[in-house]
Fold this protein.
Amino acid sequence: MADEHLKNLDAALVKMREHRRTLAENLAGDYARAHTEGWRDQLVQVQQTIDALLRAKDDERNLLPKVATSAPLSI
């Protein structure tokens, strides 16, 4: 089940990164009155979403069962 959640988070990350790239491309162009500020604000929101998705992935990984090592630790 956690595997499925990780796949969904990965898919969401792909979409958000694509959106971020599009916004960055728009911002790299000439100033577009009535658009540039909106793109900038959207970029900030998208980056915050990406950060949240990365934290969510870490949390999901922590929920996965820990695999015990069968080999003894060497001293």
In short: The mean pLDDT is 91. Residues 36-63 form the longest helix (28 residues). The chain has one domain: 2-62. Residues 14 and 58 are 16 Å apart (CA to CA).
